[in-house]
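A note from the maintainers: we've had questions about how concatenated examples are separated. There is no special marker in the raw files; a new sequence line simply starts the next protein. For clarity in this README we add a label.
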Amino acid sequence: MAFQLPYCLCFLLTLLQMPFHTTSQTYNNISLGSALTAQDDNSSWLSPSGEFAFGFQKIGNDGGFILAIWFNKIPERSIVWSANGNNLVQKGSTVELTADGQFMLNDIANGTQMFIAEQAAATGVAYAAMLDSGNFVLANRNSINLWESFNHPTDTILPTQTLNRNSTLYGSYTKTNYSKGRFLFTLESKGILALYTANFPFESPNFRYWATQTEGVGFQVIFNESGYIYLTDINGSLLSMVSNKEVSMHDYYQRATLDFDGVLRHYIYPKSNGSSVGKGTRNWSTVSFKPPNICTAISEKIGGGACGFNSLCKHEDEGQIICQCPQNYTYIDTNDERKGCKQNFVPQNCDETSPETHHFGFQEMLYTDWPNGDYEHFLKVNEDFCRQSCLSDCFCAVAVFDKATGGCLKKGIPLSNGRIDKGVGWISLIKVRIDNSTYRQEVPRARKKENSALILVGSVLMIIISYLIVSLITYLFASHIYSKQAKVSKLYPVVHSINLKCFTYMELKEATNKFKEELGRGAFATVFKGVLASDNGRSVAVKRLDSMVRENDLEFKAEVSAIGRTNHRNLVQLLGFCNEGQHRILVYEFMTNGSLASFLFGESMPSWDQRREISLGTARGLLYLHEECSSQIIHCDIKPQNILLDDSFTARIADFGVAKLLQTDQTRTTTRFRGTKGYMAPEWFKSSPVTVKVDVYSFGILLLEIICCRKHYEPKIEDEDQMILADWAYACYKKKTLHLLLENDNGEEIGDIKMMEKYAMIAFWCIQEDPSLRPTMKNVTQMLEGTIEVSVPPNPSSLYVNQSDRSYY
């Protein structure tokens, strides 16, 4: 044995260092002017041995055609490369190698052309060939390959094929849909070979769930003729094995495919029934796969995992997974189980006057877990407490109870990264509605027929009753509107101790010249400039909420209530409102210098002194909202568009439309999704209760924008490292190159680089992912004023900076 082990290792390394045979391949040349037409008989060009084919293959009985390369001598005709997976073409479409060397796909349905190898034609293409290796090539008269399908892989690599840095395989969307899907396999530019979830429907990588430890040294992936798949450095030395099963190309067809489920599998298929590996079975079998268990490998804090939201991933043999729904949940799309699951019952409402707790119960599930998305955690409690806590909480969809520790975790919709794992020792309590009448299910057809007569009679009666009710409501509504319009302006107490002017709709219509001059537009409202003739021609900003939207009525009441109680020089003053019929209108003082966004991102940059004053003013306004007004207010939408500037360029916080008020004995609140992408704190995406620290986070992003006079996200910038301002700014801070952030300034700011560095450090503290690490706005204000020192901030490392999730912006 002392001799055999080194001998085997030496033999293995010898095989790895000699990846390819040097025997030449026979070419069946495809001459210029040749073409194929998409027909039902799968027209194709064959390799010399007939083992591979290039051409059109029909997808499904009623589907289109894909231009592809496939194994031609097996019944499945498994596809290994495709040109148009995202856009199938119709019958009659053609692929053509033109007389001038262009290789193009012509879609007959819309008359479009796709150049498959656009740059190769300019270098003298003389012919094409389908090789026995599975590689389709375009070559010149000297038989030098100008283009190869091996250099442009889709989801599969074959023996003798290599992957270089920046090469990527994209898993298909489903088993029969060859569009780019939810996973990718790539050799990164920095040498790491990795599997990623894709930022679907985009193609950018999102979360890495398997990787080699080869940063800086990984150079090439080789799939050699002995069946080994491995990563080498630039000198050809072995770094990491991907598949170490020796399989003969003479006996087996082989492929390594990133499947639609996110697993990279090395497949073999016996060329004859006498093959030794695979026991002579005539189908594809798996010899190795990565990762070992994708259900547990994907552990990202955002995203649906391997099976989508609200689902459960179960790991089977050969890396196969089964996607299941919890009890009383159903697939969103039965044709695509990986889209996730939905509740098949009406969820619990959050009306405290009728909590519906008696309509809900629990289904117990063993060995299940959704490791992310906890929004509340109790320790040393019993199961009854855990059940009751979830039952009385309308946000709770699942309670997980650990009998060993007395731990209780509450999770809300959507549930992410669900998996079935025998190693899980706790109980999952799935909250379900026990009243069958409110389940989301269709009435059986037989029952429909039995009740058809009753339904007809009932329908006639309902029409008559509905007509009478509508007539009565119309009369009452018209009378109400008439009485409203007859009222004149007066001081109207909206809430206790608040007196604001109540305008009629006609007054504001006249003041705005029929709402002519638009100042801005938001998701639920439009702002117009107006002039109050009754107030000596005073200019005002008139915010008209969109009509007939229930959410706007809540927003209107929130804004009147919140702003009506406030009084601070850094807040926009509310002068009055209109609550007439369907009209919900707010009247503010007019800010002559517009929004901070137009000032920061316009042609002329504000001076450094102006930037400091605006930063400090905004901080003081937030401090007032958080700690100094009668009811603590979370603004929830701090951004440059919501900071207005008066005639002296004083910062004034506006738009309390999404404000969340807290009572004096509250420090946290759970609320629906609010705010603007890019400025929203990570806790919004974790189903976690939010606090005033979400405003601190938004202020940190805003502060960086004020310092640099640029937007937090610039997708069109040439240097990708500079796209996300927070990411770039922190990198400059660590490298002591903060002056790079001010390259477009006039020099004044660079002269005060120490002050600029301090402001950047404050911003980094504000955008910490952990809310507890962020300072309060009182601390922020003191740091900006210079009354307390600013310590060295840790890396903000927010969830979307770490994961390059640029879809967030």
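[label: protein 2]
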Amino acid sequence: MALDFSLDEGELRLAESFKAIIAPATAQKREALTETEGLAMLEAMGIATPKRILVRSSSEIESILLSGGHEKIAQRNAFDFQGAKLVVKVISPDILHKTEIGGVALIQNDAESIIKTVGEMERRFASYRVDGYTVNEFVQFEPRLGHEIIFGYRFAPDFGPLVSFGPGGIYTEYLAAKFKPGESTITLSPFAATREFVKSLLSHNVVAGLVSAGLRNTKPSIDIDRLVDAIMAFLSAAKALASCGISEFEVNPMVIRSTEASLVALDCLVKLKDFSSSGLVYQKGTVPYNAAQASRPVSTIDKILKPRSAAIIGVSEKGLNNGRIILRNLLENGFDASKIYVIKPGAERIDGCRCVPDVVSLPEKVDLFILVIPASGTPETLAQIAQMDKAWSVILIPGGLEEKSGSHMLIDRMKKALQEARGQGKGPLINGGNCLGIRSVPGKYNTLFIPEEKLPMPRGKVAPLALLSQSGAFGITRISKHPDINPKYILTLGNQMDLTIGDYLEYLAGDEAIRVFAVYVEGFKALDGLKTFKAAKEIVESGRSLILYRAGRTSAGAGAAASHTASIAGDYAVTKALFESIGAMVCDSLDEFDDAIRTFTLLEGRKAKGNRLGALSNAGFECVAFADNLGGMKLADFSDRTNAILSGVLKDAGISDIVDLHNPLDITPMGSDEAYDRSFRAIMADENTDIGIVGIVPFTSRMNSLSADPERHKEDVNAPDSISNRYGSLLAETDKPFVTVVDTGKLYDPLVHILEKHGIVVFRTADRALRMLERWRRSVAAR
């Protein structure tokens, strides 16, 4: 579903109110609003602020007080300044942080203190531009943890308008660092947040729990719905704020008024910024948007994913260069040779495919054009393709474009040609540059120009997996690490000069055959984080899985990502918070990403009915590790029937005297392949077992776990009755999910390989297995 950046009627009215308030700042070319301007914006949003009066000088406040006493302030300004204390603040466009330099004073509520304090501030800030001084009511609140809250809005170039909620006051940074994203601070997008969704997130939030759930022997300080109201006020205003050029709007603190159990904004900071340099367009009545994103003809992505005709430029007639490798890959994948054209002057055929001398000589508009020539020749070739309307899509392989300094002239020429062609209803979609391209099983092609002997492609049953990676090397590394998983699509995007992660994900979300989406991203193009997020939300809500690894999460990593793929660095914490809030799995490490690919793909279609774990191993340490890493699972209580079966297995194996029946079951190294098989089958068949794990410590001579070597031993891990093949049969017979652990060195890799050939998830340590199994279980249970 395309993003709608237009404002509705209510948002338009709010935007007009905001524009009137910020008009002086805009006229003065200020980058921030004064506090009074910010408070006026809050009031326009329906957020309560302290009662106050603005005076220009100490002489003005003295005149007011002397003309009728302190009571006159209330009469002339309709404010009630009852209470023993008042707060005086300096108002200046040059002073954003007042407290640190003496711009805020808590004083006694009497005329002498007011006049004296304003006079002192006049002298202190004589060198600043000062609009005046506010005399504010003192809002009483309990200075306890959770009672000072931060509400925030900001515009991020990759995600657009965002709203945040978390601990305020002096606790902001401390608690944010101590808790996981979502536990103390939540981040929301106005494009994907309903009231019910906000309330569900608050139910797991530390701040909301402290003030609305009530701790032991205490009553809730505020109803959770009042917190939701305030967040919804920011969400409802977010698009209007963005349309007015507001880049940041922070309320810190928002406090809970002791006398009314209501929220009051005590202070705010509002900043302005023009994001045109990030590729965004400002238009009346809309949120700033990416014009290139809006104009891309993404409805024709099927041409690049499932092409019926293709052309390649950059193929060597004699040697085996990248272009020749790609040509052969297409042919080996079953692409129709009669529909492949090679741009090669002076040649008639290469590998049986017809050659033409130049782009203009192509006999038809091809679905896919693969460009494998040096960067210097890319702009002219792409311009010809676009202007002559010779291709629906282009895979741009060469690097040295956006990521290399001094390449802007090349890029400008290329973009101009594409823009002109699209203005005429022409112009192809472009994948890349600086990429390895695409492997599409439905499209019968592979542009990953790695020789087969270096990177054998997965074969066999197509997995319900799509792998999207900005980095080509990362994509092919995943292929190498998961040789028995055959993804439907492997997409490497490089610089995302045209097509983006969000474009592909939005399109592929409509393919119900893809159940798992694994995404590696180093940085999003302008507003493509938002597009990716919206597509991910659709995927998760449809009962499917999205796995995300966001690289460039440190300043050093962001710099490396920018030089590698010309990406917007972005904010890792925001990415993590947004995607986890919708149920996507955000991985903290590359190992976790690989574990998730295996687990979510191979267990797809299975579902644990509960959280009861059945566990088996032949090593005591592993049984302890199972019990230590349950997470949200619990050990199943085996039924009497299962215990009877297990007793029989142990007796038949001659180990009933040394093995006690419990869960996890330690069958000891004395257990044979048959005992191992029968035991785990009984555990998995138990009605009290929802999910299983079995550890195989294969050193015992009673287990058939080595590759055949007749001169040294009689074992053969490939034998039909080996434990690996027995568990392969069990996987086919049960619909319950289970994983295995093989905590060994390289000698037992053949055992692991056979298990994986059967589609069994294998881990190399027990704790890693259970951590991922628990994340999978929670993810599936939430559907």
